[in-house]
Design brief:
The complex is a heterodimer of chains A (262) and B (275).
Chain A (H helix, E strand, L loop, with lengths): L2 H24 L10 H4 L2 H14 L1 H33 L1 H16 L6 H8 L3 H25 L3 H9 L4 H19 L1 H18 L5 H10 L3 H29 L12
Chain B lengths: L7 E14 L3 E14 L3 E5 L6 H9 L6 E6 L2 E2 L7 E4 L11 H10 L5 H14 L15 H13 L5 E5 L7 H18 L2 E6 L2 H7 L2 E5 L7 E6 L8 H4 L3 H31 L1
Parallel strand pairs in B: 3-8, 3-9, 6-7, 7-8
Antiparallel strand pairs in B: 1-2, 1-4, 4-5, 9-10
Helix pairs in contact in B: 2-3, 2-4, 3-4, 4-5, 6-8
Chain lengths: 262, 275
C-alpha cells in the first residue's frame, strides 16, 4: 500500500466515525435520537469547545502544567531506576533481600497511592510527579537491571582482555547495555509518566488536562470531557513522535528487528 | 625454527583444570597439560569437540585458574589476567554499540591515548584488515567474516606479545576461513608474535602453524602429541593443502587424532543418553 492510500484510508476512518457520531446524536432515526446528546454530545460541540480553549489560550496553561509534571516524573523516575537498577544488578545480595518488597510495591495499583501523595505533597504538581515517578521508576529499574545482568560474558571477557578496569567496564560495557534496554522501553516509560500526571490531576488538583476533564465531568459538560480527551490524545501522540525521533538517534547501533544477525 | 634459543612466551607446566558441577561432583576438564610456546612461534591445538582446548586457552589468558600446576608468561608466574596477551574469541565479542573503528580504537582509548591519535591508528588497522570503507559501520551491519576482521584489528592494535585465538574462524564458511587464514598469516609475518591457536580443523592447524599439538578426548583431556610442521613460509593456505609434505603430515597426525575423535563422539552421545 502506498503512503498516500494509507493516509487517505486512515483519514477516511476518522471521517466516517465522526460523521456517524454527528448523525446518530442529531438526526432522529425512526422517530428517536439513538445517542442522547446529553450523554454523547456531538463532534461539532466538541470541536467548538476545543477551538474555544485554544483561541482564548486557556488550554496552554493546563498543557504546560501536564507537560511539566510528565517531564519531571520521567526524569526523576528514570534517574532513580537507573541508579537502583545498577546497584541491584551489581550487588546480588542487596537484590535478593529487597526482591519481595520490589515485587510487592510493583504489584500495587499505583492509583491507590494518589490520596497519600496528595496528603503528603499537597494539591500542587509534586503529588502528580510522585505518582508518575512510582510508575516510571519500575519500568526503568527492571530494564536497567536486566540490561546489566544480560551483558554477554564474552563481551565482558573481551573488555577485560583489552585491559579495561572495573570503571572502564562500567563505562564501555555495562552502561551502554543498560541504556539500550532503558531506551527500548522509552515509549512505555514516557507514556506512564503522562498517565501518572493526568490521573493525579483527575483525582485532585487545580490545573492540568486531568483537571479540565474532571471539572467538565463535575458539571455534566460531556462536550468538555470529550474535548479534554481529544486534546490529551493529540498531546500523547506528539510526545510519542518526539520519543521515536530520540530513540532512532540513540539506538542506531541496534539491528532492525527484521534483519537477521547472520 | 630454533625453538630453544627463543624465550618461552607461554609455559603451562602440569596444568589441570577442574570445575565443580552439580553439588560435590568435580569435572576435570584438562589433566596435567604441559605445553610451551616460544616467542615468535605459532602453535595450534587440535582436539575433538569438548576436549578442553578452549579451557587451556583461558588458562593461558588468566581468565581461568588451574587447579594444579603452573602457568608462566615470559618466565613470570601468571597472576590475574595475562596482560601480555590479546585474545580473539570464538563468539562475537565486539561491542555492538560501537562502530568498527571505535571498536578497534578502544584498546588505545582505555590506555588514555589522545582520541585523535587513537582514531588515526585505528583507521590504519581497519584498513590493513581490509575494511577501510566500513570503518563507521556498527557490528550488526557487518558480515561474520568482517566482524572477525574487526576483532583481529581490535586485538592487534594493542600490540600484544602473545596472541590467543579460540576457534576464531569456526563460524565462517570455508572460503572465508581460507581468506581469513591468509590474512592472519600475513599480519603475523610482519612481527611474528607468539600464537596459541585453538581449532578442531586439523587442515587449518597444519596450514597455519609451526607446531600442532593434539589433545585427547575429554573429560580429563591430556596432550597426546606434538608435531613440528616444517612447511616453508610464507604460505598460501589454499595452495599448501595440495603439497605432498602436507598430506603426509596430515595422515600421520590424523591416525592419532581419529581414535580420539571417535572416543569423543561416543562419550558425548553416551552423555546425551544419560541425560
Amino acid at each position: 500500500m502506498s503512503r498516500l492510500t494509507l493516509l487517505s484510508l486512515q483519514l477516511l476512518v476518522a471521517i466516517v466515525a465522526l460523521a456517524l457520531w454527528q448523525f446518530l446524536t442529531t438526526v432522529p432515526v425512526f422517530g428517536r435520537i439513538l445517542l442522547p446528546p446529553f450523554f454523547f454530545s456531538n463532534p461539532v460541540d466538541v470541536g467548538s469547545q476545543i477551538f474555544k480553549w485554544f483561541s482564548s489560550g486557556v488550554i496552554w496553561k493546563h498543557l504546560i502544567i501536564t507537560l511539566w509534571e510528565s517531564i519531571l516524573a520521567f526524569v526523576i523516575g528514570s534517574i532513580g531506576g537507573v541508579l537502583v537498577g545498577f546497584w541491584f544488578a551489581r550487588q546480588p545480595r542487596v537484590a535478593a533481600v529487597f526482591d519481595p518488597y520490589v515485587k510487592m510495591i510493583n504489584a500495587l495499583p499505583r492509583v491507590v497511592l494518589a490520596p497519600i501523595f496528595a496528603l503528603w505533597l499537597g494539591l500542587g504538581i509534586w503529588s502528580k510527579v510522585a505518582l508518575g515517578v512510582t510508575l516510571v521508576f519500575f519500568i526503568v529499574f527492571f530494564n536497567v537491571y536486566q540490561g546489566v545482568k544480560e551483558v554477554s560474558n564474552t563481551v565482558l571477557d573481551n573488555g577485560r582482555m583489552l585491559g579495561m578496569n572495573e570503571r572502564q567496564l562500567m563505562r564501555h560495557v555495562y552502561w551502554p547495555s543498560a541504556l539500550s534496554w532503558m531506551f527500548s522501553s522509552l515509549h512505555t516509560s514516557v507514556g506512564f509518566a503522562v498517565v501518572g500526571a493526568v490521573v493525579g490531576e483527575y483525582l485532585g488538583s487545580a490545573a492540568g488536562l486531568g483537571y479540565l476533564i474532571q471539572q467538565a465531568e463535575g458539571v455534566f459538560d460531556v462536550a468538555g470531557v470529550f474535548a479534554g480527551m481529544f486534546v490529551l490524545s493529540a498531546f500523547v501522540i506528539l510526545i510519542d513522535m518526539g520519543v521515536t525521533v530520540v530513540e532512532k538517534r540513540l539506538l542506531v547501533w541496534r539491528p532492525v528487528a527484521v534483519e537477521g544477525r547472520g | 625454527m630454533a625453538g630453544n634459543e627463543q624465550p618461552i612466551a607461554v609455559a603451562l607446566d602440569n596444568a589441570s583444570v577442574a570445575f565443580r558441577v552439580a553439588g560435590d561432583r568435580v569435572y576435570t576438564a584438562v589433566e596435567q597439560a604441559s605445553l610451551s610456546v616460544a616467542d615468535g612461534e605459532f602453535v595450534a591445538i587440535v582436539g575433538p569437540t569438548g576436549c578442553g582446548k578452549s579451557t587451556l586457552l583461558n588458562v593461558a589468558a588468566g581468565l581461568l585458574k588451574p587447579a594444579a600446576g603452573s602457568v608462566k608468561i615470559f618466565g613470570q608466574p601468571l597472576t590475574g589476567l595475562n596482560r601480555d596477551a590479546g585474545y580473539l574469541f570464538q563468539a562475537d565479542a565486539l561491542f555492538p554499540w560501537k562502530t568498527a573503528i571505535d571498536n578497534v580504537a578502544i584498546g588505545l582509548d582505555i590506555k588514555g591515548a589522545p582520541r585523535e591519535q587513537a582514531l588515526q591508528r585505528a583507521q590504519g588497522w581497519v584498513t590493513s584488515v581490509g575494511l577501510g570503507a566500513f570503518a563507521n559501520r556498527y557490528p550488526h551491519m557487518l558480515s561474520g567474516g568482517q566482524r572477525k576482521r574487526v576483532g583481529l584489528a581490535q586485538v592487534l592494535i594493542r600490540d600484544p606479545k602473545i596472541l590467543l585465538m579460540d576457534e576464531p574462524f569456526g563460524p565462517l564458511d570455508a572460503q572465508t576461513r581460507q581468506i581469513m587464514g591468509n590474512l592472519l598469516l600475513q599480519l603475523w609475518n610482519a612481527d611474528r608474535k607468539a600464537v596459541l591457536f585453538v581449532t578442531h580443523d586439523l587442515e587449518e592447524a597444519i596450514a597455519l602453524a609451526d607446531r600442532v599439538v593434539i589433545m585427547s578426548a575429554g573429560p580429563s583431556a591430556r596432550i597426546i602429541g606434538d608435531w613440528r610442521v616444517k612447511l616453508p613460509r610464507p604460505r598460501d593456505i589454499s595452495e599448501i593443502r595440495m603439497e605432498k609434505d602436507f598430506h603426509e603430515l596430515h595422515r600421520e597426525i590424523w591416525s592419532v587424532l581419529k581414535d580420539e575423535v571417535m572416543k569423543g563422539y561416543v562419550q558425548s552421545s553416551q552423555a546425551a543418553e544419560a541425560v
